[in-house]
Amino acid sequence: MKLSELLHGIRGMNTLNVKEATVDIHHIEMDSREVRPGTLFFCINGYTVDGHDFAQSAYEKGAVAIVSERPLDVPIPVFVVRDTKRTMAQLSNRFYDHPTKKLQLIGVTGTNGKTSVTHILEQLFKGQNRTTGLIGTMYTKIDDVYIETKNTTPESLVLQQRFQEMVDKQVDTALMEVSSHALHLGRVRGCDFDIAIFTNLSPDHIDYHQSMDHYMYAKSLLFSQLGNTYEGKTAIFNGDDQVADQLIQMTTADIITYGIKKQADVMASNIRAAATGTTFTLTVFGESIEVQTRLIGLFNVYNVLAAVSAAYVSNISLSAIQQGLESIEGIAGRFEAIDSGQDFAVIVDYAHTPDSLENVLKTVQDFANNQIRVVVGCGGDRDKTKRPIMGEIAVKYADETIFTSDNPRTEDPNTILQEMTAGLDRDQYRLIVDRSEAIHYAMKQAKTNDIIIIAGKGHETYQEVGRERTHFDDREVARAALKERIK
Ligand SMILES: CC(=O)N[C@H]1[C@@H](OP(=O)(O)OP(=O)(O)OC[C@H]2O[C@@H](n3ccc(=O)[nH]c3=O)[C@H](O)[C@@H]2O)O[C@H](CO)[C@@H](O)[C@@H]1O[C@H](C)C(=O)N[C@@H](C)C(=O)N[C@H](CCC(=O)O)C(=O)O
């Protein structure tokens, strides 16, 4: 693609001369380390370093043009724009030829449930022989090929590239978790969503968004973006959530609500919860069927309703939905049972927000006929306000709480634990900083019919200490501890 073609109509501070305009762009990159000959390089002023400082290095590695926020002294065309991130989203979309226009794109936002909803949808679509792509916290998955990701919602440039790969592999439906950071930072600018889903809103990421209102505004961007071209667009809301009515105002798309408490288009009633799964009556626009799922807990009923709403809009019949839901085995790291034949339950869950921790603990309380033990921590360099709240929730529901490390990053884990336990009586909890030791301790204490919840990391296979990631998987450690116990 010619540089002039890519930049056509973009407002920026230079006019390309004929020679510059005919430069061929073969790649686009925002990281100088990835630059190859023929690359257009975007200088991004980041949170840790300023990408403009790598312009020279990008040029030396073969960059043929640069998009920047200020004039630069390099002998290649430099196109100066007001905000390189925004321009990058627009140009990436162009460079990869608007891939989201060529597939059905479903975006899921909300504090909790994004991963579960996208994975339930994946199963429902696969049951209809549709090819899916998935972008989220755990990974990007294109036609059963897994790609590791750093962010829940990747940067626009990576995102558009992934969509193009999906189009190349004839994926017809892309399921994407859309984080509030991504919405706020414009990573999904240019994505042509067909369906947008709101799951729920509860305190999280307040370090970044500063207030719950701003957090909600960030979420609302998905729905205003969807409403820009309302034809064939559907916005799906959890009608039981307290901000649903406000978010509904943000879109001109068709609206579907789901819920349990208030009247909604898609509803669950007569819910029968068991330790092995959940059964309920599903009513979709007045038509009712009985559904059975191995997913456990009321929060998962909401996740199922969100997915059902999107599947229904995507012309999947109620009977196919019913069959699809029955076939779902579970979701990795989400209420995942670790079973090595022991006589007590071990559950690994990603619960890392106050709300999700409470949901998981409340759910097991319904089935518990002996002690509940929870192993939990809070991440470093992230929202500190949730630490004492998570601490309180843990001791409120569990008979024994073991506070431990969970991705302390550049913070001292002891400081994080102090903040989690501030205000608690010393005899309400145990502190074991080393996460592996904490899990081993919980296993050693377990008696018949006890329930152990290992919360916070779920599917993660690493522990972030300092700026390094080292291998750590709660499920592996739990299995090893169970083996040791049996010996
Ligand atoms: C705060 C934030 O969003 N940071 C994101 C940001 O990193 P950054 O601003 O620190 O980037 P930087 O390291 O300063 O680099 C600036 C620029 O210089 C470039 N560079 C850098 C070094 C070099 O040698 N050459 C070079 O060109 C970089 O490629 C980049 O373009 O840009 C990176 C690349 O896109 C992101 O991976 C990174 O997300 C970090 C990992 C992060 O933790 N983000 C969190 C806050 C986040 O976005 N979370 C949400 C969801 C969370 C949830 O729901 O739980 C998410 O969607 O993941």
UniProtKB/TrEMBL annotation:
One of its GO terms (molecular function) is ATP binding. Its cofactor is Mg(2+). It is found in: Cytoplasm. Residues 108-311 form the Mur ligase central domain. Carboxylation is probably crucial for Mg(2+) binding and, consequently, for the gamma-phosphate positioning of ATP. The keyword Cell wall biogenesis/degradation applies. A motif (Meso-diaminopimelate recognition motif) lies at residues 406-409. Its main location: cytoplasm. It is an enzyme of class 6 (ligase). ATP binds at residues 110-116. It catalyses: UDP-N-acetyl-alpha-D-muramoyl-L-alanyl-D-glutamate + meso-2,6-diaminopimelate + ATP = UDP-N-acetyl-alpha-D-muramoyl-L-alanyl-gamma-D-glutamyl-meso-2,6-diaminopimelate + ADP + phosphate + H(+). GO terms for cellular component: cytoplasm. Transmembrane segments: none annotated. Residues 333-458 form the Mur ligase C-terminal domain. Pathway: Cell wall biogenesis; peptidoglycan biosynthesis. Keywords: ATP-binding, Cell cycle, Cell division, Cell shape, Cell wall biogenesis/degradation, Cytoplasm, Ligase, Magnesium, Nucleotide-binding, Peptidoglycan synthesis. Residues 25-75 form the Mur ligase N-terminal catalytic domain. Its EC number is 6.3.2.13. InterPro entries: Mur-like_cat_sf, Mur_ligase_C, Mur_ligase_C_dom_sf, Mur_ligase_cen, Mur_ligase_N, MurE/MurF_N, UDP-N-AcMur-Glu-dNH2Pim_ligase. Meso-2,6-diaminopimelate binds at residues 382, 406-409, 456, 460. UDP-N-acetyl-alpha-D-muramoyl-L-alanyl-D-glutamate binds at residues 32, 151-153, 179, 187. GO terms for biological process: cell division; cell wall organization; peptidoglycan biosynthetic process; regulation of cell shape. Belongs to the MurCDEF family. MurE subfamily. Catalyzes the addition of meso-diaminopimelic acid to the nucleotide precursor UDP-N-acetylmuramoyl-L-alanyl-D-glutamate (UMAG) in the biosynthesis of bacterial cell-wall peptidoglycan. This is UDP-N-acetylmuramoyl-L-alanyl-D-glutamate--2,6-diaminopimelate ligase. It comes from Alkalicoccobacillus plakortidis.
